[in-house]
Amino acid sequence: MASTKPGERKLQILQTLAAMLENPKGEKITTAALAARVAVSEAALYRHFASKAQMFEGLIEFIEASVFGLINQITEQQEEGIVQAQAIAQMLLNFAEKNPGMTRVLTGDALVNEDERLQARMNQFADRIEMAFRQALRLAVSQGKIADAEAAARASMLTSLVFGRCLRFAKTGFKHSPTEGAALQIAILLH
Predict the structure, then answer these.
(1) Cα Rg for the chain, rounded, in angstroms?
(2) Around Cβ 42, how many Cβ atoms within 10 Å?
(3) CA proximity to 31, closest of 1, 11, 61, 51
(4) DSSP output for the chain
(5) Within its chain, how far is the Cα of 71 from the centroid?
């Protein structure tokens, strides 16, 4: 067996877990099934991760780093608050569409029957997304594009739209694209 570089096996385990989450039936993933797909023993999995929850935390860390890195790019590149909010919403939906397994983590669907702290972390993620929308919309208020009284409500609606579309994508076995028709709905919420 060829040796792997440090960190390579860990990444392979996380990529395999994400791929297994793309199964539209959404069956519970066991460490035995994961080990078999990676072609290692369960003990080898536990050399890289102390628990299955830690494997899911690795996926959550990837989601957070990717999404918030992109949000930072959007806020740095776009000067208009409305454009920032539109771009953030579209980016989140594109991320979901390109990463169906991660979408199941994002919505909490893959975390059912797992450690409750994982769902709490994803709830915190949703709160941070809403905060990003609020910041963009506060900028829009300062630019005279929307009324101050509407900023929080619009941020909440955008968050609900994004997570609702992601949930529908996951619950339909990835048949209903989260991006299809989304641009118009986002525009309606922002104008």
Answers:
(1) 18
(2) 13
(3) 51
(4) -----TTHHHHHHHHHHHHHTT-TT-PPPPHHHHHHHHTS-HHHHHHH-SSHHHHHHHHHHHHHHHHHHHHHHHHHH---HHHHHHHHHHHHHHHHHH-HHHHHHHTSGGGTTS-HHHHHHHHHHHHHHHHHHHHHHHHHHHTTSS-HHHHHHHHHHHHHHHHHHHHHHHHTTS-S-SSTTHHHHHHHHH-
(5) 12
Tens digits of per-residue pLDDT, 16-75? 999 999 987 767 889 999 999 999 999 999 999 999 999 999 999 999 999 999 999 999
Could you tell me which of 119, 133, 117 has the C-alpha nearest to residue 190?
A: 133
CA distance 73 to 54: 28
N residues, the chain: 191
Neighbour count for residue 32 (Cβ, 10 Å): 11
CA gap 42, 36 in Å, rounded: 8
Q: How far is CA 87 from the centre of its chain?
A: 15
Query: How far, in Å, CA of 159 to CA of 52, rounded?
Result: 29
Q: How confident is the model at residue 112 (pLDDT cuts 50, 70, 90)?
A: confident
Looking up tokens 């460490």 gives 31
Look up residue 117 and give its amino acid: R
